Every structure is written in C-alpha cells, then in structure tokens.
C-alpha cells in the first residue's frame, strides 16, 4: 500500500473520534499528577492501561527498578505502565512514548480545570499540552493501527511517571524494554505551525548535602563548621560551569540549611539542575561538580553529592534525519506542512536516541505552547491531525526500518 491508501484507512478508523478524544483528555487533565504525587500519577496510568486493555492490548505495570541508596526518594515515585500488541519476546517494534507526570501541585486541577474554547481554538488546564493531549493521541493512534492491521511489526507504548525530574526510574525501563526498536515516536507537545523536534538538550539533576558542625554563633563560633558557608562556596563554584553561548546551563534552584540564626549551621543542602547540548559537555560538568564537592573550603565540613545525568540529549543524526523525512512525507499526505526545530529542554526522546541508538523523533503530539505555566494551552484543531500523523509515521518507519 502507499501513503494515500494508508491515510484513507486511518481516516475511516479515526472518523468521529475527536469527541471521545476530548472526553478522555478532560478526564486526564482532571487528575492531579505532579511527579512526587505517586497516587495521582498512577491514577493516570491505571486509566490509560484500562483503556488500552479494553482495546485489546497487552498491558503491564512494571515493578520498581533498583533504587540507589543515596536517592531513596525515588521509591516514592509512580510506576511505569506499558502496553503492546505482541508479547515482549516479539520485540518492541515501533514505540510510542510519553510521560504522565506534570509540574503542577495537587489542587491545580480543581482550581484551574479543563476548559475548551472552540472559537479561540484553545484547550487549557494543568498539563493539557505537556503532555496529556499527547497521551490521548498515542492511545487513539495505537488503537487505529491495531484495528486496521496495517502495521507489519509489534507496537509498544510506554508511559513514564517521572520525566519532569529527569526520568530516573523510567529511563531504566526504557533501557530494558526498547533496545532493538525500529523507531521511537515521542508525543511531547508539537510547536505551533507544524513544528516537530529533531534535537534537544539533555538534563541532569544532582543533590548536594553538606555536613558541618553546630556551635553557638556568639559564644563559641570557632568550634563550629558552617555547612551554610560551605554551601555558598559550592554554589559559586557550580555557577562557574554556566556557559550560555555553549547552551550549557547549571542552576542551583533549591537550598536549605541551618537550625537557627544564632547557631553555626550543622547541615545544608541544594538541588542542582543542568542542561547541555552534547553528552560530552554533560559528563564534564557532572565530573566537575563531583570534584568540587570533594574539596572543602570551610575546614570541618564534608560534602556528598548524588544524582547526575538523567536524560541524554537528542542530537541530530543521519537515522534521525531519515525518520524526519518520513514524517514530513506523512505530513504532506495529511495536508500538514512540518518543520524541524531544536528544543532547549530535555525529554525521553534523547535517551532513546543517544543511549539506545534508535531512530527517534520528538514533539509529535498535538500542538501547544506556554507549557509549565498557568497559561499553558493546546490547539484542539491539531488533536486528530497529530494523532493521524503519529499513526502514518509509524507505518512509514516500519516499512523503511523493518528488518
């Protein structure tokens, strides 16, 4: 079959599906699912799994991977959910990936619920674009492919609980389940005007803890060792790695420490986020931060650092460019004019490309902007077209990369 024939069959499969897609989207947006709220994230996963189970997919909830001793907080994250057309031994085939977590705290869905404004072509609500609309597009595209019988290989869907914190557990699931995939299509929000993403930065998350020695700040200051002062030195040292022309950001975004104003601080800590365009740059900065932590400035203090690189960068590659060309051809068949862009933040697409070596394209979901803000919106007019684009691109990739 050619693209036009595939399109005709997909048009039939997805006819009159916009209303149920919007209903499911409203359902998902109404569920608060910030990364640290495992109950809410898992509620989203259970809803997706139930929907896919009814559609005849094999669904599973993956067990927690081994958690590093120095990052025990990961035990409280949600679970990875997975679905497929075939048993795992058949291989992953084409993979659709997306994340269930958002950045908005519990209570946001009630305070700022889903709204649909047809006249303005706007849907709003927490996580509506990033990326609950993408999850909906994944599900309906997958069901259309399954029902049509057009896809000549397995189809795998993976849903991450912790992408907004760098996918510390989900990346292990991707590493275990997606090696050998023919292509990965990530349903992060597309950019307005037909944009998909060909490259994006990687990210890292690190946690710095300083142990000092308490003392009365007035009576015997000299007997103490201030963890807060040591942390201040460390923050300035970390900031020296910032290199904006190179696309390298290092941000100490959260700090805490001390027990009272008149006590020499016995402890302090900070959380650090970094982004980088090349894996080499990311590795260099992490090594530099670890070396900095190992050298105390305030005598009597000890620094420990955990974490590191999380999501690797999505770098341009010949196989990625080949997939983009196929996506463009699919878009032309659907009447969509698509262009590629670079994105200045990280996503799981980069891990699939850099760590697994799989042809990957990102931001294939419905178009939207202002993500991570109260002004976030999705364009409802792009919901069905982007769903069709994912399905048609999967067929293109299976034909081109199939073995």
What's the gist of this structure?
With 403 residues, the chain is of the alpha/beta class.
Please supply descriptive tags for the structure shown above:
single chain; 403 residues; alpha/beta; Aminopeptidase; Alpha-Beta Plaits; six-stranded mixed beta sheet; five-stranded mixed beta sheet; 11 helices; 35% helix; 24% strand; hydrolase activity; Peptidase_M20_dimer; ArgE/DapE_CS
Task: Walk me through this protein's architecture.
InterPro entries: ArgE/DapE_CS (IPR001261), Bact_exopeptidase_dim_dom (IPR036264), Pept_M20_glutamate_carboxypep (IPR017150), Peptidase_M20 (IPR002933), Peptidase_M20_dimer (IPR011650), Peptidase_M20A (IPR050072). GO terms for molecular function: hydrolase activity; metal ion binding. Pfam families: M20_dimer, Peptidase_M20. This is M20 family metallopeptidase. With 403 residues, the chain is of the alpha/beta class. The chain has helices at 3-13, 18-29, 38-54, 108-111, 128-148, 170-177, 227-239, 279-293, 318-333, 348-354, 383-401; strands at 58-61, 81-84, 94-99, 115-117, 122-124, 155-160, 183-186, 189-190, 195-200, 202-211, 215-216, 249-257, 263-264, 267-276, 302-311, 339-343, 360-361, 365-369, 377-378. It has two domains: 3-201 and 314-401, Zn peptidases (Aminopeptidase), CATH 3.40.630; 202-311, 2-Layer Sandwich (Alpha-Beta Plaits), CATH 3.30.70.360. The protein contains eleven helices and 19 strands. A hairpin with a 7-residue loop joins strand 18 (365-369) and strand 19 (377-378). It starts with a helix and ends with a helix.
